[in-house]
Amino acid sequence: MARVIRQHRRSPRASERIPLYARLHVTSLDGKPIAPLSRCINIGLGGLRGCAASGMAPGTPVWVAVQLPSGRIFEARGHVAWAKTTLHPALFGAPRGMDDDALFGIEFDALSPDDLLPIARLLAARDRQRRRARQIRRLRPLPIRA
Asked: Which residues of the chain register pLDDT less than 70?
């Protein structure tokens, strides 16, 4: 019996993500607001995840702008890769227009490495913090008590 070897290709959106809770401005390519009151939940080199009061259809081309912790505004063109909206009133309650009734993922379209540099810096800073925390745990294995 032949064994089937499956190769899993990672999609570009499967890259590492950084939790980022910030106001997200989502507009159509001609500048009309699409998802008012939307927030960014996490961001990575391939895209971001957000939540809003109203959903968007997958495949919709969008322009996003989010303020990074450094204070810089990151802007990119992308499209809605997936969307989930609260629909089942018996389980979750009817959508009330709250800012978490719709979740969506936006995949960035053809950004150059220079455009992604602010996000890459966030990833590098997080790696430095993780390395520093591991060093501290190795040097001081005992719990610190206040």
From this structure: 1-14, 87-100, 141-146
